[in-house]
Amino acid sequence: MIQKYLLYSSSIADAMSEVTTAGGFVPIQLSDRAFIATFPDDFDISNLKLSSVEKPEDLDENTSILASAWEEAEKRINEKQILETKEIPLKWDDKDHQYPRNPKNDPILREHLKKNGIVEITPESTSQTLNGKVAVGILIVSGPKANLQFTSTEYTQVVSEVLEGLFFLAASCYEASLNFVTVTYNIPISSTPICDDNNGCQGTNAEKCEAVFRDPALAYLGYPSGNDGCVQLTKSLQSTFKAKWAYISFFAKYPMYNFAYQYSVNIFMQYSNNGWGPDKINQVFAHETAHVFGADDEYASSGCTCDVSGTYKVPNNNCANCAYTPKVICLMNQNDLTLCNWTRGQLGWGYWNLPFKNIIDDGEPRKTSSAPALAYLSGKMFMAVRRDNPGNGIRVLISSDGITWPVSHHLDDTKVSTCDSPALAVFNNKLYLFWRTNDSNNQIKFAYSPDGINWTIPTNNTLPGQSTSAAPAAASFNGKLYVFWRANIAANTIYYMASSDGTTWPSTSTSLAGNSTLAAPAAAVLGSKLFVFWKSNDTQNKIYKAYSTDGKGWVKDSAGTGMTIPNQTTSASPAIASFNNRLYLAWKAADANDTTSIYYGSSTDGINWGQQFPKIDSTSTSAAPAIAGFGTKYLNMALKASGTGNEILTDNFLPGLF
Q1: What confidence tier does 82 reach under pLDDT thresholds 50, 70, 90?
Q2: In the 8-state DSSP scheme, what is residue 499?
Q3: Using the 8-state DSSP alphabet, how is residue 295 labeled?
């Protein structure tokens, strides 16, 4: 479980910078005195010098209210994590509940917007993609009578629910570096509702019911009426906090066109939250926030289709009315804090171009008996697989787009045969293939090729005196070709060696002292660092990492220094790849109820990782996955399908452009 802290500081910018430098994450800034930070479970909070968990005596009233609201939200979040209980989510169009509205699913709302000069239903200039610093204006509007007013408890509850929804979104994509800056307004107005309930706010009354509380609230803050005032307030928040994006949300007890709806830069919500109740404001608010940033509805009554949505025009394939299958639970189709692959893409976070596809060659699906390997060279993607035949030979598949694989070549089975997964690396403009021999010697051998078809197998192609009990891994770093492996000894220690020319190898190897693994290691380079990742050598199945700036000295786990991927476990070897200045990681799950799903994440430095990692929808494997960047275009993944078929499946990940 991640650690969450409410921190106070008199130097907020410096304090938040210290947190991120220490490997933490700042999902929410409450005010200029307080913020929320998360850390891996082994972080010592006393290491922070510029912020503290101790509440200052001189704290202002607004920050105190926000701090209390967060403490309530955190309590709910922790209870859900500890109890590991989850309500059965209801579809937004459940017969006993109303559903939130937005212009795409509501013709009356579209007509309302046209009258206000809003024609295009696309993300506003202040909310193109959900990433970076986002200013959120929370306008809590109270009327002249008791039934229109918020008590202090209700006010705190609204803010608490909003914070919980924002925390969910921020924690769902560490790569997006989300930092929500909340600005709360407690606004008293004297306007009288024009209708007794929401039913009277239909048709031409929709604008009047909104304007009766919206415009006085804007005037109270010094802004003009109508959507123009909303946009001006939003842009002011964006400018004041130097935020990348901004939007606002009105909360009121006034009758409205609908209990929750969104358009332009605005969200409108009633405190009662219809049949969902005030304690579900967090889910509805997160849902509407997703609309602000381009995500589409997915429940049947919305009239959704497979059409694209969001800045990057991502298909809405999880829509109930779309023929694409299978469907998964998502915030946009059910009242549940879960995001599907397609919604993630619509928010600008990148998405997998599902489904994974069978590799077809000579009219038949290609198969493998182990995990595949991937490498990119000279505009082509190469995949090496252990053949699913008695000879255990190695086949190399070649693709010009990383999607279709029309060319394949199998190496001479009498010279190249393996009992495990092969490894690929690019060095000196050549493709290098490494494998564990298919005999009791368990030697490590290699071959190289300029094109994946014409292979050179040196006479002496064995790493001197070395043997392994798992597949090797390889990477090119600082003008040398490095090979890593699990030693063929009881301790399962990780060893490595390097070659300056790719053919001549030293007579001795070096160990990553004190580090061992139950599976094959993985290696990749990001910037000036050579990284190695591995599964722990015990039943905890943790994912460990180490890095070096010279290929000799290593920064690695020692006495619990925390060089693990936070709270993640794997039942096979991890896979890593450097792509577009990030290090990407993918692995096969090791949960008691799930050992075939695939999870992934990325890091800008390879050292600091998020605390939440998405699962690839409706995809499973019976071995470790493989990943590699296809130039700068997209990230490729290959895997052995789960089940008995042993088909080779591939897919690509289209990154959001943050």
Answers
A1: low
A2: E
A3: P
Q: Give the count of beta carbons closer than 10 Å to the beta carbon of residue 442.
A: 18
Q: Which two tokens stand for residue 84?
A: 């590991």
Query: CA triplet 59, 64, 68: central angle to 5 degrees?
Result: 150
Q: What is the pLDDT of residues 135-181, one digit of tens each?
A: 999 999 999 999 999 999 999 999 999 999 999 999 999 889 999 99
Percent of the chain with pLDDT over 90: 74
Q: At what angle do helices 281-292 and 152-171 cross, to 10 degrees?
A: 50
Token pair in block for residue 145: 């009578």
pLDDT at 656: 81
How far is CA 485 from each of CA 259, 360, 420, rounded to the nearest angstrom?
59, 31, 12
Q: Whole-number mean pLDDT of the chain?
A: 91
621-647 exposure pattern, b = at least 16 Cβ within 10 A, e = fewer: bbbbbbbbbbeeebbbbbbbbbeeebb
Mean predicted confidence (pLDDT) in 396-422: 91
> How far apart are the two ends of the chain, measured CA to CA in Å?
28
CA distance linking residue 274 with residue 254, whole number of Å: 13
**Run of H or E including 169:** helix 152-171
The pLDDT, as a whole number, for residue 627 is 97
> What single-letter amino acid sits at 460?
N
Q: Per residue in 114-134, pLDDT tens? A: 777 776 667 789 999 999 999
Identify the pLDDT of residue 247: 98
Nearest Cα neighbor of 109 from 264, 287, 254 is 264
Determine the distance from the C-alpha atom of residue 480 to the mean position of all C-alpha atoms in its chain, rounded to a whole number: 33
Specify whether the CB–CB gap between 219 and 233 falls below 8 A: no
Rg over CA atoms, the chain: 28
User: In the chain, how long is the greatest CA-to-CA distance?
Assistant: 91
Q: Six-digit token pair at 657? A: 């452009």
Q: Which residue has the higher pLDDT, 341 or 366?
A: 341
Mean pLDDT of all residues in 442-455: 96
Which two tokens mark 392? 């255990």
Instruction: State mean pLDDT over 185-190.
Output: 98
Banded pLDDT at 510 (limits 50, 70, 90):
very high
Please state whether 392 falls in left (phi above 0), alpha (psi between -120 and 50) or beta: left
Contact between 256 and 98 (Cβ < 8 Å) = no
Burial of 130 (0-12, 13-18, 19+ CB in 10 A): buried
> d(Cα 229, Cα 137) in Å, to the nearest integer?
13
Residues 6+ apart with CB under 8 A from 352: 341, 616, 617, 619, 637, 651, 652, 653, 654
pLDDT of residue 543: 94
**Distance separating alpha carbons of residues 135 and 138, to the nearest angstrom:** 10
The pair phi, psi for residue 408, each rounded to 5°, is: -145, 155
Residues 6+ apart with CB under 8 A from 142: 148, 149, 150, 186, 187, 188, 189, 252, 253
- Residue 353 pLDDT > 80: yes
Name 380's bridge partners.
377
Contacts of 39 (CB under 8 A, 6+ apart): 2, 3, 5, 19, 22, 23, 24, 25, 45
Give the Cα separation of 585 and 564 in Å (integer). 12
In one-letter notation, the amino acid at residue 226 is G
For the residues 95-105, what does the mean pLDDT come to? Answer: 85
* Cα separations in angstroms, 268 against 288, 333, 384, 639: 9, 19, 54, 45
The rounded distance, in Å, linking the Cα atoms of 574 and 586 is 6
Query: CA 72 to CA 102: how far, in whole Å?
Result: 29
3-state secondary structure of 60: coil
225: phi > 0 → left, psi -120 to 50 → alpha, else beta; which?
beta
